[in-house]
Structures are given as structure tokens and as C-alpha cells.
Amino acid sequence: MTEERSSAFSRFVLASTALLVMLIPAAVKAQNSAEESPRQSFTKRTVAYKVAGNCTLHADLYRSPDDRIRPLIFWIHGGALIAGYREDIRPEQVQRHIDAGFAVMSIDYRLAPETKLPQILEDVGNAYNWARAEGPKLFRVDPDRIAVIGHSAGGYLTLTSGYRFRPRPRALVSFYGYGDITSDWYSKPDPYYSKQPAVSREEALEALSDGFPCGAPPPARRFRFYLYCRQQGLWPKVLTGHDPDQEPRYFAPFCPVRNVTAEYPPTLLIHGTKDTDVPYQLSEQMEKELAAKGVEHQFVTIPDGGHGFDRSNQDLALRTYQQVVEFLQKHRK
To answer: Which of 1, 109, 114, 302 sits CB 3.0–4.6 Å from 272 for a disulfide?
Structure first.
């Protein structure tokens, strides 16, 4: 493994397993370095939005300490739907959105393989409906001005919100997400991950033996299960219990690229050309479909960018967050 690929792999492991969780205090002051804007504080509040069996799902609510009604950014973490945590959102990203006049809601959802994809999508939809119903009362947000942002698998969930949520979000932002979960990149052994030491089925199952804790970061070793899925090309089967080769029609409702219409929300796609986890071509494919349906969109290419580039290069991250803000500002009214 080259030094560059090893570094990219390490960054993904950190991002997917929440080893880089950065806790944001209840009142924080951060420097908006790109434009040297005034320092601004914001508050954080954690609430429960759903109880599913013995699991209570939470959301973190960030906003300026004032009474102004704010548009809302609905943020979805990544982690292949197997790992990840609501506090994976970077403080710099929160601050940039707060400085731009938004409130932010970062959510948890139940994780695979213990929970299958339809139920995960249900959790995310429930969180969106909760934000619309309770957000105006609890933290002064406008329920009709909600944008959805997600990273990696969170980007995938973001793209599903464009046709599953009602009313539709005002805008979507997908960081290195994907619109297709059935093609070879996920349903066949992955060339990149197959170069890593093989993970046995027994080791993969052992990595899940701790379960996933509701309201806390998942154990780091859950990534071993994901690595096994990528080496064996099992992710779609594990997530749904169905085989995309034998039941392609079953997957149609779960593939954003197959569900784009002219009513799809304005969308910003962001992807690095050297992403070794989610191929850059997945965003190219989504961009092509958006263009074909006449959907307003932008596609930001990060030359030589890897998966999770915004965690490894702060200057690049801040510039990209600013592009996100500029895109969202166009659709906030």
C-alpha cells in the first residue's frame, strides 16, 4: 500500500468509526477564518426524537443564542450505515453554518446490520418530520426552510431525502455520497479493500458482538464488519436481506439515481477524484441524471481529493464549507 492510499484508508477508518469525534461545548466561540468574520457563539442542546424498541434516538441542536427564526440544516452522519455518530460533525462546519444564519440539527439513526435499510430510512424520515413539527417551538427554526446535508453514507441518505421527504427539502448537499447501491462498486468485491488483510466471517461477526449503543459512539471495531462486506461484495445483501443480482426491482426505491424527477430539490454534489471508498463516478452518475431531468444543481470536484478530504485538510474544508453556504443561501428564501 502506498503512503497516500494508507493515509486515505486511515482517514476513512477514523471517520467511519467515530474515532475523530469532536465534542462541541454548550457555548462555543470559533473563528470563521476564511472570511475573518466576527467570532460568534452558539448553543447546543440534545433531545430525543424517537424511541424504537429499546433504542432512544437523539439529535443535537445548534443555533445562535437569540430569538430569530432560522432556516435549518438537517445534518446526517456517514459510516456506511454501519458506524458513525451524530457528533461526527466538525465544529468548523457547525460554526460556518451558524455564521451564515442557519441552525443545525445533527441526528442519530439505528445502524446496520442489526437494522435494515428500510428502517434506517424510516428513522431519518421520522427525524425530519420531528424537526418540522417540534423545531419551531423548541429552537426557533422555520419548518419550511430546511436543507439536508450528509457525508458518505449520510450523503446517500441525503439524496434519498430528495424524493422520500414531504414536503421536499429546500436543497440537498451530498459530500462524497452515492445514488446507486446495486452496481459493482458495492455488490462485488472491492479492488481497493481487497488489498487489505482479509477479514473472516467469524471476525466480522465478532466485531458486531458489542452491538451498537443508542446515544453513544459505536465501537471502533465495527469497521471490521464493513471491511468484510466490501471484500466480499455483500453490502447490499447485508443492508437489505435481498440480492441485487436476483431482485433488482426490489432496490429501485432505495437508489436515488433511479428516482430523480423534475421536482427533485436543488442539489450540490461534492466529491474527490481519488476517493477510494465511494468512487467519484457515483457523483458523476448522479449529476448526469440531475441534468437530464432539468434539476438545478452544482458539482464541485475536489482534484486528488480522497474520502473524507474535509477531515484531513482544514483550509480545503473551510473553502468547501463556504461553497456550501453560498449554494444554500440561494435557496433559503
So the answer is: 302
